[in-house]
């Protein structure tokens, strides 16, 4: 039989989370952000759960081609725009909308020969200092785009750096509003954190991490607070057990020493599967739906869990590393990510190719 580790994608949860985004902004249109192969879930696997979105936002042309191949005929937005002039040919052929964030992209559009004008999203650098025109340069960029016959409608977009934190978004909102006052065009400002925490509603909202069952402001709020559901389950099974005496150690580096008699289970999951090596002893896990903890150092192909208080667990018991467990139990990916000192985003995107991933049947 194949190695027992697998990842499940829950399309019902994706649909639920998209509906939660819609409920927060009922009069707005919603982008489903599916960059990074739908945050590691797989575009083709996630599509059915997200097809009620008003559009799909992503990064590269290959992903856009995949969405069109699935039969999607609605809007697709390239969040970083094009990377070289010839990309505009595919934008014309696939009817892609695309961000414009620098002078070079305007020049490429000016030289592009097309029979169909492009819908563009002019990006402002309102304070994050990644992509976009500064507020003082923004109107000049808009005027240059507006003069091009290659450009149809110009929408306005920015991105918040601190929507999930204490600083908030007021300073960026003020910069954006001042620079765009009286400019026509639809607005697209809110990412997941701005939508959930600040309720910013414009013509378009960008639902990203919230779609995938991770709270953008964890640990201040968890997914239960925002009524989100896990969309990915990483699960495996116990393949061996060990009985420890006091002072026995576990794993590489003997980083864990048993304080007394213990029973541990060896799980077919390690950092080569995408489970973080930095997860310390105490990282939560579910065994047969019951909460327990990891023990010792995560190795390439295995990790160990505490079975001392789970006498019925043994070889073959199901281990939920994150996501949905038996009996309705849930282990949010954010909890595991926090133990590893990272974010749920990274764990989703890092599931290794050797792990079988499929759409859940339930």
What does the model show?
The protein is α/β, with parallel strands linked by helices and 362 residues long. The protein folds into two domains: 11-212, TIM Barrel; 232-359, Lyase, Ornithine Decarboxylase, Chain A, domain 1, CATH 2.40.37.10. Helices cover 27% and strands 26% of the residues. It is built from eleven helices and 19 strands. It has helices at residues 11-24, 35-39, 43-50, 61-69, 87-94, 103-111, 135-146, 170-180, 192-198, 333-339, 344-349, and strands at 6-9, 29-33, 55-58, 76-78, 97-100, 118-124, 151-158, 187-190, 204-207, 232-244, 249-250, 256-257, 262-267, 284-287, 290-295, 303-306, 318-324, 330-331, 356-359. An eight-stranded parallel β-barrel has the order 2-3-4-5-6-7-8-9, surrounded by five helices. It has a six-stranded antiparallel barrel with strand order 10-13-16-15-14-17. β14 (284-287) and β15 (290-295) form a beta hairpin.
Can you give keywords for this protein?
362 residues; isomerase; Ala_racemase_C; EC 5.1.1.1; Ala_racemase_N; 19 strands; Ala_racemase; 2 domains; 11 helices; alpha/beta; Lyase, Ornithine Decarboxylase, Chain A, domain 1; 6-stranded antiparallel beta barrel; single chain; TIM Barrel
């Amino acid at each position: 039989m194949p190695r027992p580790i697998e990842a499940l994608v829950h399309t019902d949860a994706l649909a639920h989370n998209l509906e939660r985004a819609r409920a927060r902004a009922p009069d707005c249109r919603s982008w489903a952000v599916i960059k990074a192969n739908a945050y590691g879930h797989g575009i083709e696997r996630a599509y059915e759960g997200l097809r009620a979105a008003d559009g799909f936002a992503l990064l590269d042309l290959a992903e856009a081609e995949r969405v069109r191949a699935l039969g999607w005929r609605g809007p697709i937005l390239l969040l970083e725009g094009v990377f070289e002039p010839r990309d505009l040919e595919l934008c014309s052929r696939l009817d892609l909308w695309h961000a414009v964030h620098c002078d070079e992209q305007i020049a490429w559009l000016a030289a592009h020969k097309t029979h169909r004008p492009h819908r563009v999203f002019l990006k402002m650098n309102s304070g994050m200092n990644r992509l976009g025109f500064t507020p003082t340069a923004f109107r000049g960029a808009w005027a240059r785009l507006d003069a091009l016959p290659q450009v149809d409608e110009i929408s306005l977009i920015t991105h918040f750096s601190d929507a999930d934190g204490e600083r908030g978004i007021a300073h960026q909102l003020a910069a954006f509003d001042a620079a765009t006052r009286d400019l026509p065009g639809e607005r697209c400002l809110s990412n997941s954190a701005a939508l959930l925490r600040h309720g910013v509603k414009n013509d378009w909202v960008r639902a990203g991490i919230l779609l995938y069952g991770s709270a953008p402001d964890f640990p201040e709020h968890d997914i239960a607070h925002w009524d989100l559901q896990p969309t990915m389950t990483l699960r495996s099974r116990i393949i061996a057990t060990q009985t420890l005496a006091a002072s026995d150690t576990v794993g590489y580096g003997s980083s864990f020493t048993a304080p007394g008699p213990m029973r541990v289970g060896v799980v077919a999951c390690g950092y080569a599967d995408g489970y973080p090596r930095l997860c310390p002893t105490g990282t939560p896990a579910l065994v047969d739906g019951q909460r327990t903890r990891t023990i010792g150092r995560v190795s390439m192909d295995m990790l160990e869990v505490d079975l001392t208080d789970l006498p019925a667990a043994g070889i073959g018991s199901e281990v939920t590393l994150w996501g949905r467990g038996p009996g309705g139990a849930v282990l949010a990916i954010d909890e595991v990510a926090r133990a590893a000192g990272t974010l749920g985003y990274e764990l989703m995107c890092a599931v290794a190719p050797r792990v079988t991933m499929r759409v859940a049947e339930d």
